[in-house]
Design a protein that fits this description.
The complex is a heterodimer. Chain A is α+β, with helices and mostly antiparallel strands. Chain A has five helices and nine strands. Chain B contains 23 helices and 20 strands. The chains are: A alpha+beta, B alpha/beta. The complex binds thiamine diphosphate.
């Protein structure tokens, strides 16, 4: 089963290396990992998608929290959360196929962001499922290349999800 | 007033209570060593190998409970520390390692003696730092010591760029530590404590497991009192021997592969295991499928990654053992468990019959007898550091310490070469205690170069060398599991008498059982380091033994043909 973890990490050198090293050493498999800035310049945020049984995920969570530079980890799987990925898909398109492909993209609220004589680049944002579906539909035209940014996730509602370190908020602010 | 990074380093160490450090200088730490001359409060013990320095710092930490410090230069100096860092990491020993690094503008250029030490040490340290500016020194040292000694202790490495040692800074005062992501837990949540108390109240055949965490959290007395009040026997791991006195009626001695048979039988037949600060190493459990099948498990550990890692806990209590026990204590009434203790006493009698020390003296030298004699002569009050191998297991069985922090050994890493430097570090930490190193002829030769460090620094350790002319433990495995096909285990040894003499250490060679006691007396009376060279039986085996993967109760026992007279 897929699990999505959100990790808040200190914005210090080498933190990504520590996380990657942990996954390698403990033999955990990463499906996707993204890192980015947050509203607080001292803190970055990772969204980590892993495949595994709940007990394994709990172990991974504990091991992540144990890293000194990791402030908090939360498993948002099964919680009301927004999860999004972004993909750029370069698809083969003769001039007479452009309209068809553009129409497909529109159904998915994807956008054509580049037009070349023999190809188009389509940008799509959405859930894993949605991106997969568009990808499938474009495949018959011939996909030249595809890149995905990796998943980011956020809990719905007011919760910010800081559990392992009570009192943290006060220190961060 | 502005100070150099090197000056701030030494002043910060003094602030942290450091009085002694071990190591070897070199190009990338020369500025730091120069500044060190201005701080005579800091004793520096120059070793002959950085591995020795690392293991001395570790022995120092284990004996005293304080943070040990080892220092090396960049490149080869730093990599020579690696085995020692790993030993400290596996056994949760608080040691701060300081390595020199090339100047920050040269980082990443493959400069002379540059090595990616934060990268190399990443998986074997609790945390590590690189200092590229003198402004970072005070804060980094404070954080390193705090991380090393708090929570589940462990080694922390500081990689210190040469230019940052020389440059000056205004940041010289004790800094505010700000580690957003580091808050070791103390208390376990109340509902879980109540569940645990329920299990304890209901248990008929409970066993307490005292792990190294009991010593590390300073909870040895609390555990003993808890066990006494509830009449629960205490099984110990290799690293926690002495956490309750070995002579205590509730002590079951060591568990696991070479543990006491009655201890392992008690575990297998128990209905409740209360595991305190231990991690169910494979050397402790044997076959997991048949491990303590009838027992509920309460697992107390400050490190949540240990919970449900190997053995699934029925109740997990993440917190400090001392605090957790104090929280649980009022919820559990006194109990007796007479039948259970009676059953264990029966198993114990059977074990005594097989005890080699109780068997007729045939004049030959058996390691168990020697260790038993050292134990008697020192009344179990000495501090013993061992190397790794057969003698280590015999030491665990026959040197029965009466006090915590008295049995120092490389458990998790199982690193040969640990015994001599660990004993040196322990004696430096505890100069008033009698310190013995019990080593094999193989392991002793791995760090023997630091014998001169003991002599030079007048570190009064006594070394009992169990000279069987074999890599004994490997030989035993080849005997038991490889049809006695001995492959690269025979040792042609140097003349240890000449080695001792060349180093200025005392020496005696012992060939017969009748000479053991006099030799021990000789070592204890002779000032300075003394090497006792025991020419022991060459092909003796450690019993009992649970073969890898076998059930914990399926021990190979010592043959009983020669029963107690
Ligand atoms: C650094 C290191 N290398 C190799 C081993 C593998 N090993 C474990 S026990 C052992 C034999 C130890 O022989 P010795 O020091 O003579 O002690 P004995 O077992 O004879 O008491 C060896 C080679 C090890 N544990 N550590």
């Amino acid at each position: 089963m897929q699990h999505t973890l959100i990790a808040l990490v200190e914005n210090r050198p080498g933190v990504l290396n520590r996380v990657a090293s942990l996954f390698r050493r403990r033999n955990y498999n990463i499906e996707s990992l993204t890192v980015g800035r947050t509203e607080n310049p001292a803190i970055s945020r990772m969204t980590i998608v892993i495949e595994g049984e709940p007990i394994e995920t709990a172990r991974i969570e504990a091991n992540l929290v144990k890293l000194v530079n990791i402030i908090d980890v939360q498993d948002v799987t099964g919680q009301p959360a927004i999860a999004r990925d972004l993909a750029l898909i370069k698809v083969k398109a003769k001039p007479n196929q452009r309209a068809e492909i553009t129409a497909l993209a529109e159904i998915f609220r994807a956008r054509v962001v580049d037009v070349a004589p023999e190809s188009l680049i389509i940008e799509i944002t959405g859930t894993e499922d949605k991106i997969e579906s568009l990808n499938e539909l474009l495949r018959p035209f011939g996909i030249v290349e595809m890149v995905r940014a990796g998943q980011v996730a956020m809990l719905r509602g007011g919760a910010s999800g800081i559990r392992h370190t009570p009192g943290l908020e006060a220190k961060v602010l | 007033m502005k100070k150099t990074g090197a000056e701030v380093l030494w002043e910060s160490l003094i602030q942290e209570g450091v009085d002694v450090m071990f190591g070897i200088p070199g190009g990338a730490v020369i500025p730091a060593f120069d500044a060190m001359l201005n701080y005579p409060k800091l004793r520096f013990i120059l070793t002959r190998h950085e591995q020795g320095a690392a293991m001395m710092a570790d022995g120092y930490a284990r004996a005293s409970g304080k943070v040990g410090v080892a220092i090396a230069t960049s490149g080869p100096g730093a990599t020579n520390l690696v085995t020692g860092i790993q030993v400290a990491y596996m056994d949760s020993s608080p040691v701060v390692f300081i390595t020199g690094q090339v100047a920050s503008n040269l980082l990443g250029t493959d400069a002379f003696q540059e090595i990616d030490m934060t990268g190399i040490s990443l998986p074997i340290t609790k945390h590590n730092f690189m200092i590229t500016s003198p402004d970072e020194v005070a804060r980094t040292v404070a954080e390193a010591f705090y991380i090393a000694r708090s929570g589940r202790p462990g080694p922390v490495l500081i990689d210190f760029c040469k230019d940052a040692q020389v440059a000056k800074t205004e940041n010289v005062d004790l800094p505010q530590i700000s580690l957003l992501g580091y808050n070791p837990p103390l208390h376990a949540p109340q509902p879980k404590l109540e569940r645990a108390a329920e299990l304890i109240r209901a248990a008929k055949k409970p066993v307490i497991f005292a792990g190294h965490g009991v010593e590390l959290s300073g909870a040895t007395l609390e555990v003993q009192k808890f066990a006494e009040r509830n009449n629960i026997p205490v099984a110990m791991t290799l690293l926690s021997l002495g956490s309750i006195p070995s002579s205590h009626p509730l002590s079951l001695g060591m568990m696991g592969m070479h543990g006491e048979a009655y201890c392992n039988l008690a575990i297998q037949n128990s209905d409740l295991i209360i595991a305190l600060g231990m991690r169910f190493d494979d050397r402790v459990t044997g076959n997991l499928k048949t491990y303590a099948p009838g027992a509920s498990k309460i697992h107390v550990d400050i490190d949540p990654t240990e919970i449900n890692k190997i053995v699934m806990a029925d109740v997990s209590l993440v917190g400090d053992i001392k605090t957790v026990l104090a929280d649980i204590d009022p919820m559990v009434p006194n109990a007796r468990h007479d039948d259970w203790l009676g059953q264990i006493a029966e198993w114990r009698k059977e074990t005594d019959n097989r005890d080699i020390v109780a068997q007729p003296n045939n004049g030959k030298l058996h390691v168990p007898q020697i260790i038993s004699e050292i134990w008697k002569a020192t009344k179990g009050e000495a501090l013993v550091a061992t190397d790794v191998g057969q003698h280590q297991m015999w030491a665990a069985q026959y040197y029965q310490p009466e006090r915590p922090r008295s049995f120092i050994t490389s458990g998790g890493a199982g690193s040969m070469g640990f015994g001599l430097p660990a004993a040196i570090g322990a004696k430096v930490a505890m100069p008033d205690r009698e310190v013995w190193a019990i080593v094999g002829d193989g392991g002793f030769q791995m760090t023997q170069m630091d014998l001169i460090t003991a002599v030079h620094q007048k570190v009064e350790i006594k070394i009992a060398l169990m000279n069987n002319h074999f890599l004994g433990m490997v030989r035993q495995w080849q005997e038991f599991f490889f049809e006695k096909r001995y492959s690269s285990v025979q040792l042609r040894n140097p003349d240890f008498g000449k080695i001792a003499e060349a180093h200025g250490a005392g020496y005696r060679r012992i060939d017969k059982a009748g000479e053991i006691q006099a030799a021990i007396e000789f070592a204890r009376k002779t000032p300075g380091p003394v090497l006792l060279d025991f020419q022991v039986e060459q092909e003796e085996a450690v019993y009992p033994m649970v073969p890898t993967g076998a059930d914990l109760h399926q021990m190979i026992r010592r043959p009983t043909q020669a029963k107690k007279a």
